[in-house]
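Journal club side-thread
Mid-discussion, someone asked how the predicted structure for our own chain would compare to the paper's figures. Pasting it here so we can look after the session.
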Amino acid sequence: MLSTSRRIFGPALALLMVAGRLLADNAEGELTQSKLADEVAEDTLDPVAALRQPLTDALGNHGVALELSYSADFFTNARGGLNTTSAFQFRGLLDFSLTLETEPLGLWNGGAFFVNFIENHGVDITERYVGDLQAVNNADAPNEARVYEAWYEQLLFDGRLRVKAGKLDVNGDFAAGLYRDEFIHSSPGFSPTIPMITWPDTAWGVALFIEPTEWLYLGAGVYDALGASKRFGLDTALHTPDESFTIFELGLRPRLALFGQSGLPGQYAIGGVYHSGVWPIFLDDLGGRLPARFETGNASVYVTLDQMLFREEGTEDSKQGLGAFFQFAWAPSDRNEITQHYGGGFQYYGPLPTRDDDVCGVGVHHVNLSHKVQALEQRYSETAIEVFYKAQVTEWMSIKPDVQYVVNPGGAGRDALVAGVRLEFGF
C-alpha cells in the first residue's frame, strides 16, 4: 500500500511543483507551451531533480550553494598483485560542501567562503591486494571523518587577481587538467613525483593567482607542510618545526585551430615545488650497520598539457568532444622512490548519440624508480593502463565501470588486473 502511494503521489507532487514554478515564470513572460510540456515530462520522470531544483534556485539567488554527494566503489583484484583471495572490496566516500558568495548576500563584491566535510570508509585495495605505487583508486585513504577544506577567496581587478587562504587542497588549484578529471586511477590527478599536499591531507596556506589575459596565468602558494586532515591544522601551522610547501605554476590557455575546427580550448602548464622538510636518503646501510642519513629539502618540476582535439557541432561553449592530456614530472633520485612520471590519454564527453553527459577515457601512466632503489632493491618501474565508461543514468546518478592493468606493481610485482565500478550520487 505504501509503495503504491509513493508511485502515485511522487510524480503528482513533482508535477505540481514544476507547474507552479513554470506558472510563476509565465507571469514574467517566460513561459511557452512547449517549455511546460518538456519540463513537466522531464521532472515527472526524475522526481529527485524536481524536488531539488527549486531549493537550489532559491539558495542560489542568495549566493548559497549546497552540494552533497556519495560515491560507492566496488573493485576486485582479479589477477596478480599481492593477493587475489577475498579481493572484492568496497570503498565509500561521503562529501558535503557549503559555498557562500558575499555579493548576493548584500556584502562586498568578489568574495566567497567555502567549507567541505568528507567521510570515507572501506578497504584500501592498493595496500592490501595490488601493491602498486601509483594507487589504482583515487578515493583510497585512512577511514575517518574530517573537515577537508575551509577557505576564503577574493577576486580583485575584475577577476584578474585571485587570493585564496585557509585550509586548502593544493591539487584543487595546481597541476590540475581539463581532460583527466573522470579517471579513477590516482596519477591523472597529479604526478606521483610531486610531494603534493592533497588527498587525504590538506593544510593551512595562502595562494595567489594572476590572470592578466584570458590565455595567460601565474599561480603561487605557500602551505604548512605538516598539515593533516585529521587535525584542523592550527597545532602544526603555528608551532615548530617550521616546514613549508611552496609551489608555483605558469600556464597558457590558448584556443587553437585543429583538424578544420577553430577555438579548441587547451591548457599548458609548467610548475615547480619545494618542500622544506627532512627526507631520508636512499643508501646501502650494509645490513643496518650504517646509520640512516637525512637531508633537508625536496623538490619536483612538472609539465601538464591538456588540449581539445575535436568538438561536436553546436557545442562551442562545452566540453562536448574529444580531449587529450600529457603529464611529465621529475624529482631527485636520492630522496624520492619515484623519480620520473609520464602519463597520457584521451577523454571523450558525449561519445554516443543522445548520451551527451556520458564520458569515456583511456590513459597510460609509467613511473621510473630511483636508480638507487633499482640498485638496492631491484625494483625498476611500474606502468598502469586504465579504460572506463561513465554512464549518466539520471541527473543525480551515474555508473562508471573501470578496468586497469598494472605492469610490475611496486616496481617488481606480478602484473595485476583490477576491475570494478563506481556509483556516484549527487544532490
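Post-session note: The CA atoms of residues 136 and 185 lie 4 Å apart.
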